[in-house]
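Re: [ENG-882] Designed sequences occasionally contain unexpected residues at chain ends

Forwarding the minimal case from QA. Structure tokens:
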């Protein structure tokens, strides 16, 4: 279990998957073995010796000023999905968050960086033949623009993640539509970083003179620090996603800001440093 402390803010990573099972075609199609193996610093953490991308799906548990926040909720259990590794999972997420001191009833806020199936899954759980909110005492923060898009989007072959993981939160009266920048506490806020989805946000954390950012999917893999132009096939607007990514890299390069990459494999967090005309991830 990875933990970080930013001033008074405690952050704990709860992993659902972490391996080379997410193929480059799905994450960053241009990141083929031939294209990533020459980037030597990607080994050993972010690619294996065959040039396969390592990635992770995880939630962050954040304690800030007496409030408990969950950032992104992974894939969830029991959800019918077309991706075999994502289909009807039976993971120990609930036991793991409780063991980390975050029993689900104790959570005050759930923030989804965007409304995609690998970020909303544990919003709900299957109880008494229906999808019920996993965090019954939380306010769930969704960006208004993402909801406008998803509410009207057709169900994709991936599975009805809106119907099983987002609509039940509205039905239970626990959803708050937010317009970024949106402050959760004095130390934590959601910042607009559109492109991968219409209302995508990253999470900014500042406390005691220390700083961190949780990227969401504005960058999927550290190889995009060398090749920001490599885009995800799931970007809603690739051009806007690229603009957002380039701005992000420029803003945080060589700054004392811990970058926590939402799909970055262990050690997951590090600093962006300039490396000639491009960037490198220093862990
Ligand atoms: Zn994702």
């Amino acid at each position: 279990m990875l933990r970080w402390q930013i001033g008074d803010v405690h952050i704990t990573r709860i992993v659902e998957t972490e391996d080379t099972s997410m193929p480059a075609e799905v994450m960053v199609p241009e990141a083929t073995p031939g294209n990533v193996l020459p980037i030597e610093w990607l080994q050993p953490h972010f690619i294996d010796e065959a040039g396969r991308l390592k990635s992770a799906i995880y939630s962050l548990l954040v304690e800030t000023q007496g409030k408990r926040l969950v950032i992104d909720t992974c894939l969830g259990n029991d959800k019918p999905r077309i991706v075999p590794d994502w289909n009807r999972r039976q993971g120990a997420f609930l036991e793991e968050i409780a063991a980390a001191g975050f029993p689900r009833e104790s959570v005050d806020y759930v923030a989804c960086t965007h409304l995609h199936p690998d970020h909303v899954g544990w919003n709900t759980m299957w109880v008494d033949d229906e999808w019920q909110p996993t965090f019954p005492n939380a306010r769930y923060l969704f960006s208004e623009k993402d909801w406008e898009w998803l509410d009207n989007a057709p169900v994709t072959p991936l599975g009805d993640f809106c119907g099983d993981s987002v609509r039940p939160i509205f039905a239970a009266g626990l959803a708050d539509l937010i317009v970024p920048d949106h402050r959760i506490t004095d130390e934590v806020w959601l910042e607009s970083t559109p492109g991968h989805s219409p209302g995508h946000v990253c999470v900014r954390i500042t406390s005691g003179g220390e700083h961190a950012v949780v990227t969401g999917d504005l960058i999927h893999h550290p190889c995009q620090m060398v090749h920001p132009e490599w885009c995800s096939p799931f970007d809603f607007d690739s051009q806007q996603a690229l603009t957002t990514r380039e701005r992000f890299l420029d803003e945080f390069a060589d700054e004392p800001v811990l970058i926590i990459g939402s799909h970055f494999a262990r050690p997951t967090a590090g600093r962006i440093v300039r490396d000639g005309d491009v960037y490198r991830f220093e862990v």
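QA comment: On inspection the terminal residues look reasonable. The longest strand covers residues 9-19. Proposing we downgrade this to a documentation issue.
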